[in-house]
Structure formats: C-alpha cells, structure tokens
Amino acid sequence: AQKITQTQPGMFVQEKEAVTLDCTYDTSDQSYGLFWYKQPSSGEMIFLIYQGSYDEQNATEGRYSLNFQKARKSANLVISASQLGDSAMYFCAMRGANDYKLSFGAGTTVTVRA
Amino acid sequence: NAGVMQNPRHLVRRRGQEARLRCSPMKGHSHVYWYRQLPEEGLKFMVYLQKENIIDESGMPKERFSAEFPKEGPSILRIQQVVRGDSAAYFCASSPRRTGASSSISYEQYFGPGTRLTVT
Question: Does B48 touch chain A (CB under 8 A)?
Fold first, then answer.
C-alpha cells in the first residue's frame, strides 16, 4: 500500500516568484512512479509531471520541476515564475510500478497574488 | 483528438434516487478507472474495468454502487438509492493498456473533467 502526505493545506505566493509544494510518500515497492496534478477551480485534473523511482535526473516540464529525494521519500513540486493562472489545488500521487491504482495526497491550495 | 469525456458534468439527485455517471474513454483506450473525490480530499480509487470485464472493484462500496463497461458505449458508474454522503466529484480515467504493464508514460491514466454529484 502507498501513502502520500501533503502537509501544506494552503499557500500564498507572489506573482513571478517560485513556490515549492511538499510531498512525502511511503511505500514498500522498490519501483514506483510519482505524479503531480493540478486541479483548477473548474475541477478537471490536469497532469503536470512524472518521476520514475529509478530516474536519475529530476523531472522537469516547463516551469514545473520535481525535486526527488529518494532516500527521504520526498517528491516536492517547484513552480517557477508563478502566474495568476497557477492558482489551483495541487495533488501529489503515486503508484507501484506494476500497479494501476493511483494513491493521492489531500492536496495543497496555491493562491497566486498579483 | 478528443480526451476523456464525462457526462453529466453536474448531477443533482434527491435522497433515494439513482445516479448514473457516464465516461467515454479516449479513442483507442480500452481500460477505464473510476475515482471518487470527497470534499477537501484527494481522489480515491474505486474500480478498474476493461471492456465487458470488472478487473478490480476493491475500492467501491459493497452496496448500492455498480460499474460496467460494455462492448459498445461508455462506461457507467451507477449509484442506487443515493444518500448525502455520496455527494462528491467522480472522475474517470482511461489508458490504452493496463497502467503498470509498461514503464512508458504514454500508458498512464488520462482523466476526464469529472461529474459533480450533489445529493439533496
């Protein structure tokens, strides 16, 4: 079984600044995948970034980067140069490499201020 | 290239009525996963289906809930005799192969926009 913990229920960030969203996980699987999703107020789930447990490089996708520290079991999301459109709920998720069930954290609400 | 479609987007039911939620997977996808998001929580897995088969329904309540994915047509999540506690957002996701069968990210789950069920 996997467990995802997101300890920050809400965060404020100034436009154009960077923000880091914390995510720690617990799993007995040796191989697994970590995901971040964005959920704006409209409600849809938007896939942002993926990190495999055996990937040596931290994943990056545009302004999103994943700070993966395997020994600490953390997979923090960094959003650089925040924009007003980044205001949303962000979910960290994971699954075992051979599993299909995604396990989600409780989410972090990000509000970007002009 | 249409994504995963869900309808209705919003559904209001009175206690005791039935709710039917539909999910049309992406073209070429034959694997469907349903998740439920209760207020202020993350998504939780409910059921995994392939065409005409329920593979894993371990996350689905034993009573009142059922799911199907017929050979033709969308996948349907059915909730009978709804109660206020069923109020939630229900998401479906689809993939071209069973997620986890390959390390390729292209086999990951693509989510629909969700159906928000409100039970009054």
Answer: yes
- Tokens 């309540």 correspond to B61
Quick one: which of B19, B22, B16, B17 has its CA closest to B4?
B22
Band (pLDDT 50/70/90 cuts) for residue A100 is confident
Cβ pair B99:A37 closer than 8 A: no
DSSP one-letter code for B107: G
Those residues whose C-beta lies under 8 Å from the C-beta of residue B21, and which sit 6 or more positions away, are B6, B8, B11, B76, B77, B78, B79, B90, B92, B115, B117
* A101 has a chain B CB within 8 A of its CB: yes
Digits of tens for pLDDT over chain B (120 positions)?
578 999 999 999 999 999 999 999 999 899 999 999 998 888 999 999 999 999 999 999 999 999 999 999 999 999 999 999 999 999 999 988 776 655 555 557 889 999 999 999
What is the residue-wise DSSP string for chain A? --EEE---SEEEEETTS-EEE--EEE-S-SSEEEEEEEE-TT---EEEEEEETT-SSPPEETTEEEEEETTTTEEEEEE-S--GGG-EEEEEEEEETT----EE---EEEEEE-
